Amino acid sequence: xxxxxxxxxxxxxxxxxxxxxxxxxxxxxxxxxxxxxxxxxxxxxxxxxxxxxxxxxxxxxxxxxxxxxxxxxxxxxxxxxxxxxxxxxxxxxxxxxxxxxxxxxxxxxxxxxxxxxxxxxxxxxxxxxxxxxxxxxxxxxxxxxxxxxxxxxxxxxxxxxxxxxxxxxxxxxxxxxxxxxxxxxxxxxxxxx
Length: 193
Fold this sequence. Notes:
It is a single chain. The chain contains 7 helices and 4 strands; from the N terminus they run βββαβαααααα. With 193 residues, the protein is α+β, with helices and mostly antiparallel strands. Among the domains are: 7-74, no CATH class; 76-123, no CATH class. A 4-stranded mixed sheet has the order 3-2-1-4. The protein is elongated. It comes from Paracoccus yeei.
C-alpha cells in the first residue's frame, strides 16, 4: 500500500452511527485523535458517508468547544463576544479574512523568530548567560506555538484558571521567577561591559 501524502487532507468519514472512520488507517478515531492529527500539522477533511456533506467546520468547532470547556482557555471572552456579534452584522464578511490573516501573521512571526534564534549570529552571543536567555526564549516560543493556552487568557478568567490548578500557577510563577533572575543577571553583565 502506498504511503499517504502528508500534504493532502486526511479523509475522515462519518458513518450514520456518528462514528468517525480514518480512511488511511482503516480504523475508527475520536475527536482527540483528530485534534492530534491537526496539531502534528496534518490537514483533515471530515465528510458524511451517506450525503457527502463536508462536516469539517462542525467538528473543528466541537474540538475547540471541548478544549474551552475543560478550562484550556485560548479565546478571551471579548473575542468570543465579538465573534457572536459578527454573525449578525456587516462584519460577518470581514471577520473570516481578518482572522485568517491574523493567524497567518502569527505563524510567520513565530517561524521567523525561531529561525532568527537559530541562524543569525548575535553580537551578544559571546556574553556569559546569553545561551540561558536564548534557551528561555525558545521555551517561551515553543509553549506559545504549542497552544497559546494560558498566554491568551487575561483578566479574571486567567485568575480563576490558576486558582483551579494551583500546580500550573506555581509552575508559571517559578518559570517567571527564573526568567526574571536570568534577565537581572544579564543586565548586570551588560552594565559591566
